[in-house]
Amino acid sequence: MIHSQLVEQEILDMGREDYIGLYEIIWRLNTIYPDAAIGAKYSAADSALRSLLSAGHVRLFRGFSADPQSRTEPIANADHDELLRNPVSWYPGSLGHPTVTYDSTDTGELRYRELYQLNRNQSNVA
User: Which pLDDT belongs to residue 68?
Assistant: First the structure.
């Protein structure tokens, strides 16, 4: 079973230092939940990311790191739903095609700390 709070914690943790591709969320879930179905991993990642976006804990960007002039562009809130429903958004970009990336906000850092403590306490009880 994939735990939504742990998925949110992992997403926030990864986004604390740099722009992270959405595909990297799936890679992380592959490590944490190797036996879970791939569809369940995408569903959990999508749900957690949408929750974090709506709370303002993460921001989405288009990353053009494969281009000669590496850059990122913010993605408008109005475009989030369509973008997250597009399977291509969950794969690495290539030359001329951006990678959908995210980072954690200041409130995301605070939420990460809350989830870290909560998940740590729950694992000590189990």
Answer: 61
